[in-house]
Amino acid sequence: MRGLVQEGWGGAGEMRLVEVGVPVAGVGEVLVRVGAAGVNFADVMQGRGTYDGGPRPPYLAGFEAAGEVVAVGDGVSGWAVGDHVIGTGAGAFAEYVVMGADGVVAVPAGWRDEEALGLVLNWATALASLRWLGRLSAGETVLVHAAAGGVGQAAVRIAKYYGATVIGTASASKHEVVRRLGADQVIDYRTADLVAEVLRLTDGRGVDVVLESVGGETFRKSVEVARRVTGKVIVIGVAGGASSISNWELNFKHPVQVIGNHLTTLIRHAPEMFAEVMAELGKLIEVGVYPPGTPTVYDLADGPKVLAELEAGTTIGKLALKP
Ligand SMILES: NC(=O)c1ccc[n+]([C@@H]2O[C@H](COP(=O)([O-])OP(=O)(O)OC[C@H]3O[C@@H](n4cnc5c(N)ncnc54)[C@H](OP(=O)(O)O)[C@@H]3O)[C@@H](O)[C@H]2O)c1
Questions:
Q1: Which CATH superfamily is domain 2-118+293-322 in?
Q2: 236 CA to middle of ligand 1, Å?
Q3: CA of 237 to the centre of ligand 1 (A)
Q4: Rounded to whole angstroms, how far apart are CA atoms 150 and 309?
Q5: What is the mean pLDDT of the chain?
Q6: CATH 3.40.109.10 fits 121-265, yes or no
Q7: Cα separation of 227 and 108, whole Å?
Q8: Tens digit of pLDDT for each residue in 226-274?
């Protein structure tokens, strides 16, 4: 089969399309013919060696895919050949990928494979962060960073559905997309004075929740604009690099709640919460708040180009590769 191999930690420039053997489903696993693979910022980080616990090169890249089950390993119940599933498994940028049967979910009825991409990663991360960890409720204000991105777009829709006022951040060329999703305000944090602008928009109170995926200098600004005492900064990403805040600052200067969230860890250590989040996502699909995804789909061979653009911050929304 064809697959994209990451040959070194030099990013997209060290990713090549190669011929490799089709993997075999082991105990508790399913073999999936990839209909479409999701491209995530974590793929960029893995290709740079900055993703904690990520694979060492050379490795078959990609980890999110939706497709048809073509073989079922021993000990698997609940899935059969012909089912369409969405989930994660190492080496998803290929024609076939193996996934743990416990971790996959059904592609929603009537949806094509590519339309289900993001269900487990983008939407579950956004929903768990905003509602379960951030306790965002009607009448509150949320700051969603990278609001035009894969996770960001889901977060904007979710926050509006639960009655929050949404301030999004995005590069200027993406503002219209964010507004169309329902965001009340959009800020270009690369050029605007983010802190002054958010405080102005909230009459000096700050926001109730920040979905913080940018990191670097922006992380400190996110802490500054969180409402004192009750405001929550949910840290889900470090696209712009690591940053820190001291216990002294949290005590005296910025008494706010900083909460980390990593979906894989949440699934492992808080499976009940994950089950609740997935059940709620089912409801959001039913009521149309979560419509079929509309990723920009590229040929598998274009993977290196797509990853380079994602790394450069020039992409909009969910991205997919079709083998
Ligand atoms: N914790 C978790 O479990 C979890 C799960 C999924 C994703 N994530 C994180 O959520 C974030 C979004 O992921 P995604 O896959 O949906 O990507 P994405 O948001 O579609 O793409 C990243 C976007 O972030 C913005 N950005 C800001 N600073 C950047 C920088 N230094 N380099 C590149 N982009 C930058 C860019 O948009 P603008 O130019 O418009 O700002 C860019 O388009 C990532 O940080 C990812 O690691 C975390």
A1: Medium-chain alcohol dehydrogenases, catalytic domain (3.90.180.10)
A2: 9
A3: 7
A4: 14
A5: 97
A6: no
A7: 38
A8: 999 999 999 999 999 999 999 999 999 999 999 999 999 999 999 999 9
